[in-house]
Amino acid sequence: MTTQTEFDTTAVERGTIRVGVVDDEPMARSFVSKILGAAADVEVVAEGADGAEALELVRTKELDVLLLDLRMPRMDGLDTLRELRRQVRVPAVVVLTTFHADQAVATALRLGAKGFLLKHIEPAELVRAVRVAANGGAVLDPALTNDLMGHLATHHLDRIGAAAEVARLSARLRDVLRLVGMGRSNGEIAEELRLSDSTVRGYVSEILAATGCANRVTAAVLAQRAGLLD
């Protein structure tokens, strides 16, 4: 099986972020598409009503970001993520949910989702989240983060365990992890710490390997759990 690769941020250098919106509710799709379509640098290129249509969009539309509902008929969001793991290159997938404490959200992150948002997110925050995801950042809805901790009850996400895990990192890696926890993209981290993008990518990979985090989003949760953002 081919594993999912890291999102290539060069895709957004063309100036427009290409987004797909997949939700079984037509009103929800229309609302999200209208908000994103009003942003000068975002284009909603396609919509879908279930996971099967999401997979087709990924294959044919060269998306930078896929906004994916979890609970849909025929093929739900989790099954979609499982299928996407078989692809060589996929867009940054951001989960949309209405549930504050949902085991499915934690599972989605383990399956490669780059973040999660509640559907009642403010319009400006939705646009910002798409930009962050397109640039390789973690997208974390604060209203979901605390509830998610219980579902991500691995050794490195327990509060005491998280602090101990982070304490093993070098000061530079802790600086990078803190900025990952704040939702910064690699480019933004590089600018703030005066490093090259490639150096930051290397640091992020080192953090994931050292802490056992599955992806950038769980690393961001780890940063929050360890108190780096306090």
TrEMBL record:
Residues 18-134 form the Response regulatory domain. Keywords: DNA-binding, Phosphoprotein, Transcription, Transcription regulation. The keyword Transcription applies. InterPro entries: CheY-like_superfamily, NreC/VraR/RcsB-like_REC, Sig_transdc_resp-reg_C-effctor, Sig_transdc_resp-reg_receiver, Tscrpt_reg_LuxR_C, WalR-like. The modification 4-aspartylphosphate is found at residue 69. Residues 162-227 form the HTH luxR-type domain. This is DNA-binding NarL/FixJ family response regulator. It comes from Actinokineospora auranticolor.
